[in-house]
Sequence to fold (138 residues):
Amino acid sequence: MIKDNRGEIILLMGVLLSTIILSISIYSSYLARVGSYVNEQSSKTLLPEFLNVKETLIYGINENADPLSEESIENAFEAVKQDIFQREIKYGILFNATLDTIYPLDPISNVRYAVITISLTDGNTCITDRICVQIGGR
Fold:
C-alpha cells in the first residue's frame, strides 16, 4: 500500500499562503502609517484663535487709548499688535494688522472709530477680516 501525502501538502500550502498574506497586510499597514504624524496644534481650526485675537485687539486698544487723541490710538494699536504678534508666533501662527483709518462719529463726540484689517495664518489657512472698532464712549 502506497501512502498519499497530497492532502497534507495542500493543507500545508494553504497555511503557508495565508501566513504570507497576513504578513504582507500587516507590513503594508505599518508602511502606510509611517510619516503620517499630525500634531495637535495643526489639527485644530484657526477660526477660534482668530476670534480670540480679534477680541483681544479690540479690548487692548480700548483699554490703552485716549479716544480724543489719534496719536494715542495709533500708539495703543501698535503696542497691542506687537504683543499679540509675539504671543501668536510662539505657536507658529503669524498675526498682522493694519490701522486703516480713524474717524470721529461727531465732531464734538469723545468716541472715535478705527477701521482695522486683521490677518492670521498658520501656513495652511489664512483668515483676514476688516473690522470697525469703537474707541471710547463705553
